[in-house]
């Protein structure tokens, strides 16, 4: 081990390691190994790494919720569902029972209508409009 990796281990021992944001002893929001979320900036590489991880999770969630229909979906419709999973999380997307049924029977108009007939549509507006159009038409927007 190099002195720098030993130093990192010492810092981790002192700071601890947390996977979720927490307030430190001074009330400063931190994450990971003492990373101050108030003053620290994320690099583009770090942001890309987090995004890739989150998109991967959203993909797995969408595949699990739409498992029967997934193999027959176009990439555009898959994209719309992964975007929804990213935005809503698996638990909230699972509550879209009528959307899931419409996708299962490949009724794209009904699926799009269910996306628009939701509080989610009210909350996210243009995002829901775009994703519903992608679901309805199968065309990338």
Account of the 3D structure:
- With 141 residues, the protein is mainly alpha-helical.
- It has 2 domains: 3-36, no CATH class; 47-137, Lysozyme (Orthogonal Bundle).
- The chain contains 8 helices and 3 strands; from the N terminus they run αβββααααααα.
- It has a 3-stranded antiparallel β-sheet with strand order 1-2-3, with no helix packed on it.
- A hairpin with a 2-residue loop joins strand 2 (29-32) and strand 3.
- Helix 2 crosses helix 3 (75-88) and helix 3 packs antiparallel against helix 8 (126-137).
- The chain is elongated, with a radius of gyration of 20 Å.
- The model has no long low-confidence stretch (mean pLDDT 96).
Secondary structure blueprint with pairings:
Layout: H1 3-15, E1 18-23, E2 29-32, E3 35-36, H2 44-65, H3 75-88, H4 90-94, H5 97-104, H6 108-116, H7 119-124, H8 126-137
Antiparallel strand pairs: 1-2, 2-3
Helix pairs in contact: 2-3, 3-8, 5-6, 6-8
């Amino acid at each position: 081990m190099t002195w720098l990796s030993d130093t990192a281990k010492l810092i981790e021992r002192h700071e601890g390691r947390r996977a979720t944001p927490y307030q430190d002893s001074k009330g400063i929001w931190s994450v990971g190994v003492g990373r101050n979320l108030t003053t620290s900036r994320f690099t583009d590489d770090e942001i890309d790494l987090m995004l890739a991880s989150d998109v991967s999770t959203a993909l797995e969630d969408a595949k699990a919720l739409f498992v029967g229909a997934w193999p027959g979906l176009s990439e555009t419709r898959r994209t719309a569902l992964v975007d929804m999973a990213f935005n809503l999380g698996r638990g909230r997307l699972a509550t879209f029972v009528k959307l899931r049924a419409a996708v299962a029977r490949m009724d794209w108009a009904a699926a799009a209508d269910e996306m628009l007939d939701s509080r989610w549509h009210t909350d996210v507006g243009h995002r829901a409009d775009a994703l519903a159009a992608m679901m309805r038409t199968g065309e990338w927007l």
